[in-house]
From TrEMBL:
SUPFAM superfamilies: Periplasmic binding protein-like II
Residue ranges of domain Ionotropic glutamate receptor C-terminal in the record: 28-248
Protein's name according to its UniProt entry: Polar amino acid transport system substrate-binding protein
Major site of localization recorded for this protein: other
The entry's keywords: Signal
Domain named Solute-binding protein family 3/N-terminal: residues: 28-249
Gene3D superfamilies: Periplasmic binding protein-like II
InterPro entries the UniProt entry points to: Iontro_rcpt_C, SBP_3_CS, Solute-binding_3/MltF_N
Protein family per UniProt: Belongs to the bacterial solute-binding protein 3 family.
Gene source species: Pseudovibrio ascidiaceicola
Highest taxon above the source species: Bacteria
Record-linked SMART domains: PBPb, PBPe
Pfam families cross-referenced by the UniProt entry: SBP_bac_3
Subcellular localization(s) per the UniProt record: Cell envelope
Length: 250
């Protein structure tokens, strides 16, 4: 159960009577995503398909507003520049909505709110947050993320180690090059399962981030996606998907 990591975003649940439903006329959308972060998005090793909560959310919204999402794996480093340059129609990759990002991109309303956690080696699971804040311990995070910003806030820039990929941060923790890794709470359980007996999310419930679908600045699709998001929230689809991935009914 990850109830402490998931909070229902507040949306209106009543559609305006007689209002015209959004219709993207079957548009195929190229969706940029760093597909290395289960359960948000990852590549199924058996089928080669991109799967995860973000994929299901996009499919559900597109079913409401008549579009099709085609996810494309891309590295996190450069993903927003690629969006701005028109390589993708949208980016969906567990992206936190921040004021800085909103200067150059547009966001949907939040589709999920997540709190952050710290992954530790199992033998260090008794380590407290205060032990990190008091100095001397190091935290790893993926560069360019709100995880990285939190790491610097907790242990200063000098004790923060940044990696181009989340997998590299995990490897650093396994090799004892760092003392912990900042991770979104929604993904913590997946990593605890993958590295059972080795890694644990022992420090939980840190800062919360709203996640949004990312568009080019001025995109006319924002309103349509907000409408689709409101509909899947109202009809129970959003609740069913959070239950599917985290066993939580909201």
């Amino acid at each position: 159960m990850l109830r402490e990591f998931i909070a229902a975003t507040v949306f209106g649940t009543m559609m305006i009577a007689g209002a015209q439903a959004a219709d993207l006329e079957g548009k195929v959308l190229k969706v940029g995503s760093d597909t290395t972060y289960p359960p948000m998005e990852t590549v199924d090793e058996t089928t080669g398909e991109i799967v995860g909560f973000d994929v299901d959310i996009m499919d559900a919204i597109c079913a409401k507003i008549n579009c099709k999402a085609e996810f494309v794996t891309t590295a996190w480093d450069g993903i927003f520049a690629a969006l701005v340059q028109g390589e993708f129609d949208v980016v969906v990759s567990g992206v936190s909505i921040t004021g800085e990002r909103k200067k150059t991109m547009d966001f949907s309303e939040p589709y999920l709110i997540v709190s952050q956690a710290i992954l530790l080696r199992v033998e260090d699971e008794g380590t407290s947050l205060e032990a990190f804040q008091s100095g001397g311990k190091t935290l790893a995070a993926q560069t360019g993320t709100t995880n990285a910003q939190l790491a610097e806030k907790l242990v200063t820039r000098d004790n923060t180690r940044l990696y181009d990929t989340f997998a590299a941060a995990i490897l650093a923790l396994q090799n004892a090059d760092v003392d912990g890794v900042i991770i979104d709470g929604t993904s913590a359980h997946a990593y605890e399962q993958e590295f059972a007996g080795e890694l644990t999310a022992a420090i939980k419930g840190l800062e919360s981030d709203p996640l949004g679908i990312v568009f080019q600045k001025g995109s006319p699709m924002v309103d349509a996606f907000n409408e689709g998001l409101e509909q899947i929230k109202a009809d129970g689809t959003w609740d069913a998907l959070t239950a599917k991935y985290w066993g939580v009914e909201n």
